Amino acid sequence: MKERNVIFASDQNTEPGSLSPLSQRMLDLRADVFAEWEKRVRASVKGADALPHPILINTLPTMYDNITEALTPDYPRTSAAVAMPSVALEHGGERARLTSYEAPAVISEYQILRSTVLDVLRRHDVPVSDAEMQIINSSIDGAIREAVTAFTLAHAAFREQFVASLAHDLRNPLAAATAAADLIVHVRDFEKIDRFAHKISEHLGRIDKMIQDLLDTVVFQHGERLSLHPSNFDIMEVIQETTEQASDVHGPRFKVLGASVNGWWDRDAIRRTLENLTSNAIKYGAQGTPIGISAQEYDGRLLLSVHNQGRPIPPDQVESLFQVFRRAQAAKDGIQQGWGIGLPYVRRVAESHGGSIDVDSAEERGTTVSIDIPVDSRPFQNAPTLG
User: Fold this and answer.
1) Looking at the structure, do residues 66 and 25 belong to the same domain, yes or no?
2) Model's pTM, two decimal places?
3) Are residues 165 and 153 in the same domain?
């Protein structure tokens, strides 16, 4: 067998010495193993097909190298478990942060890796002894335990952050409504009473919207579909209602483009979608710059878009926008508060209407978030969603 120098992903050892025949063959077949593993995972693990290659492959090649080292007797790494916990912990944490996985998906990835390694070795007539098989199995079993532990802890942290954000966001409008109610008790000026009553109504409306978003999120997390009630209306009516309401608070920043499009959609869901997109554009767009809202019809479809100028969203953070309780780094770095459930709601509305959502973001173009749905959504209400 041809001798060659290798660099293991785990320890950067450029002179690993003599590898056992199995270790050498596993190293030679690493590319084949992960090409086959990726194909199988994308086909069978929920949420994997949407991941770009670098995110999907993650730290697994490092773990593979650890196992390869451990299979060589007298190699400095006498057990794959020496470095396995940190590698697997990182893998589980990244799966929680960067994917829409649930814990069974993390377990499946490792189980598929085990079967893929054995199938590839068998296909190339590489023998594996019982002792070597025990090392492979114990290494992968240990990695599963560590990865799932990290995955679970990360999601627990997300929930804690969400509860803190929920309490903060609900407290503000509740405090404002309470203050206005207290003032009404002490004034006899009907003009002031009217103004305070309007503020109470406005802040209670905000609280009601937050609670409705939360209830919808519970539906999302259980994999249920949104219950749509399609009606026939002109999308421009909803755009005008949304921009007029937003203009009362933020001034004349809104520029409406496009023409009337008459179709069949759930009016309340589309209105809340547009409110979420507009709210995000205001929060994260450059202060004082215009917010563009456009509606276009093409080939029996509606393209509804909201555009803002401002700090772009890095490509590797786009997917996190649509994960419940998660926000892009730009949002975390800023002063804006949020639950991280607005855009997941928008995605679910688009999918429940038989459509999809798209984000285009760059320094020179600004950020545009669009939903692309059929003009008549009624035939597509039972189409599957990503869940």
Assistant:
1) yes
2) 0.51
3) no
How confident is the model over 74-87, as pLDDT tens digits?
Answer: 765 544 444 455 78
Q: Is the Cβ–Cβ distance between 268 and 349 less than 8 Å? A: no
Q: How far apart are CA 317 and CA 357, in angstroms?
A: 15
Q: Provide the 8-state DSSP code for 313.
A: P
Burial class from Cβ neighbours inside 10 Å (0-12, 13-18, 19+) for residue 58 reads buried
Same domain for 367 and 259: yes
Helices 190-221 and 130-186 pack at an angle, to 10 degrees, of 170
Rounded Cα distance between 148 and 107, Å, is: 7
**199 and 103 both lie in a single domain:** no
Determine the structural domain holding residue 191 and report its residue range: 161-221
At 52, the pLDDT band (50, 70, 90 cuts) reads: confident
311-340 confidence digits (pLDDT tens): 877 666 655 566 544 443 444 444 444 434
- Counting the structural domains of the chain, the total is 3
- Give me the sign of the Cα torsion angle 127, 129, 130, 136: negative
At 305, list the tokens: 């878009």
pLDDT for 122 beyond 50: yes
Dihedral (CA of 361, 365, 369, 373) sign: negative
Same domain, 181 and 296: no
- Partners of 266 in beta bridges: 230
Q: From CA 328, how far away is CA 91, in angstroms rounded?
A: 20
- The total of other beta-carbon atoms located within 10 Å of residue 117's CB is 22
Beta pairing class for 356-362 and 366-374: antiparallel
Q: Is 107 exposed, middle or buried (0-12, 13-18, 19+ CB in 10 A)?
A: middle
Of 221, 174, 208, 222, nearest to 325 by C-alpha is 221
Tally the C-alpha atoms within 13 A of residue 342's C-alpha that lie toward its C-beta.
Answer: 21
Residue 218: per-residue pLDDT: 58
Long-range contacts of 217-224 (CB under 8 A, 24+ apart): 217/324, 217/339, 217/341, 217/344, 217/345, 220/324, 220/341, 220/344, 220/345, 220/348, 220/387, 221/324, 223/387
- SS3 label, residue 292: strand
DSSP string of 18-39, one letter each residue: PPPHHHHHHHHTHHHHHHHHHH
Six-digit token pair at 185? Answer: 């008790």
Which of 235, 245, 243, 216 minimizes the C-alpha distance to 349? 216
